[in-house]
Amino acid sequence: MPKKPQKQSSLKTPLIVLSILALILGLTFFLNKDFLSGIFSYKEIEKEKQELEEKVVTLEKQIEELTEPPSQAVTVPEEKEVVTPAAMDFSNSTCEELDQKIQEFFNYLDSQPYIASYNLEKGSRAHFKEIIEKLLDNPPIVARETDSLFTILTNTAHFYRILGKNNVLMIREMIIREADILEATFALFHQWSRVGSQCRDVQTEIRLPLPKLYEYAGFFLNTLGGQSYLFRRTPHIRLLIKYYSVMVIDRANAEVVNRYGIDIVPHLESLLNEMEISETMVYKEQYLRKLRELQNKYQTYYEEREAPGG
């Protein structure tokens, strides 16, 4: 009976071709698995990049909105009764005296029509206590801020993100309207931050612990976001914030909680130069006297360290 070689050949050829193709595909996948996995990783990276860009755009819009002037012009009343003390030195005040002054300050705010327009349900004392707690519990990023553009933008919009638009506008308006009592008010709360935790049987429930204040001092003095915030403020409020930030860094040094290792000296010298030419600070001479004391203190400290056997 005759053989049928043609059929066997026709069956073997597709099988050989398929085997060769399978081998080639297998080798290709094995040799290029890193390349293929890179494609999938690239897609994930692109997705994360797109999400980050969207967040950056949102933050940029918030920053732009914050730099715009309020829709309604804010004017300082010609005459008003100021209950907050005009004195600056509270270092010898008792807990009861500090507590009383702070209560007078909030009572004064509650009596102002512009504060009433914000409809604070619990009054200014409770409302500002909540604001302070939110800020202290959600500090800005101080270390390695420049590692990421997103971090810089997040810091720049820090107060807007944490407090929201209404609170930011209210604080801005308060700063404008109460410009004549800002220095005394800053001094009052600075002293409260030093002794408030030791006070008992007082109405003021606001707590300002040094480690949390230190985060904000570092933010204002040592980050691009903090510097950006200060540049958008008036010289008066900018100098006040820088002054008390330096005071906080000095306290952090004294209590060994300067965990970012912020060098106070360049900030101290810069602030001294700015303060000397300022024409807006009511208690300018008191600030200069304190800053020069600190300058001498740190100069002596570094000289002793650099001396043989120091």
User: What is the helix fraction of residues, given as a range?
Assistant: 55-70%
Instruction: Give the termini distance in whole angstroms.
Output: 113 Å
Strand content: under 5%
Mean pLDDT: 82
Q: What general form does the structure show? A: globular
Main sheet overview: none
How many domains, in number, for the residues? 1
Rg to the nearest angstrom?
31 Å
What letter string, H or E per element, gives the SSE order? HHHHHHHHHHHHHH
SS-based class: mainly alpha
Low-confidence stretches: 1-12, 27-31, 33-42, 66-86
Strand tally is 0
What does this protein look like?
With 310 residues, this protein is mainly alpha-helical. It has one domain (53-68, 80-306). The chain has helices at residues 5-31, 33-67, 95-110, 113-116, 123-137, 149-156, 158-163, 165-177, 182-195, 210-222, 224-231, 235-254, 264-277, 284-306. The longest helix has 35 residues, at 33-67. The protein is globular.
List keywords for this structure.
310 residues, mainly alpha
How would you summarize what this structure contains?
70% of the residues lie in helices and 0% in strands. The chain has 14 helices and no strands.
Secondary-structure map with pairings?
Blueprint: H1 5-31, H2 33-67, H3 95-110, H4 113-116, H5 123-137, H6 149-156, H7 158-163, H8 165-177, H9 182-195, H10 210-222, H11 224-231, H12 235-254, H13 264-277, H14 284-306
